[in-house]
Amino acid sequence: MDTVFLHHNLLYARGHQKMQSSEHYFPDHALGIMLSGESHYFSNEGTFVMQEGTIGLLRRNELFKKLKKVGPTGEPPSLISLFLDQKTLQQYAADNGIPKQSTYRGNAMLDLTSNVFLKGFFDSLLPYIDQPKKLTAKMAELKTYEAIELLLQAGLSYQTFLFDFQEPHKIDLETYMNHNFKYNIPLASFAKLAGRSLSTFKRDFTKIFETTPEKWLQNKRLEQAHYLLSKREMRPSEVYLEVGFENLSHFSFAFKKTFGLTPTELTEQQRTTSY
């Protein structure tokens, strides 16, 4: 993946592989357009697909898995993304007299493809891909404010979306982790999303699960992997990413250590007994 930072909050990314899978947690809102190829976003909210020309807005503090694929004619996935950080939005709210907002309750991923003004906005960024040095700090600031203005013009709900500055509150840790163990993110990110400092997260976690987060996450992911391999008949190459392992070799090693056979051996065993 080639990533060109046009500025600190503006980036252009282009892939080379036919398929790329990754997991993400963004602390900031992200507004982007798919220039070619496809991106599939999987979250607890469902699946959001960005094809060529799709404009999407992703809310901060959301966990999701992303699969990038080549387009129908073989073009690699590429996109431009603009990140709207809290400091910039708070300054904008102060400068423009935007009042304190209630908690945002809508969808975390929004489709804005039909917005012709946002399409024109992204078209204006295309020349900077080849000449990123032309995008000065002042120009990037103006472009960021332009994007905010365009989102606010898109509807009243976007004001709450952008200017709800509340941080995640302390939530039921057991329920949260059972719903989100498949996301391979740092413990510090899990802690923030659960409304805790890292030390409090680890302390609360040990009280609830009677083991460390690291051990619990690995065991939980392996149990889910065993279920998907044995009951859903998925392939090992599909399962390791689905349950949150970074690579297939580590997954195979941990699986055999726990269950006494590799994922491939389990699937072969399942196939033999099914005949």
From TrEMBL:
* Span of domain HTH araC/xylS-type: 171-269
Which key words tag this protein in UniProt?
Answer: DNA-binding, Transcription, Transcription regulation
Which SUPFAM superfamilies does this one have?
A: Homeodomain-like
Record-linked Gene3D superfamilies: Homeodomain-like
- Give this protein's Gene Ontology molecular function annotations: DNA-binding transcription factor activity; sequence-specific DNA binding
This chain belongs to the protein called HTH araC/xylS-type domain-containing protein
**Species, as recorded:** Hymenobacter crusticola
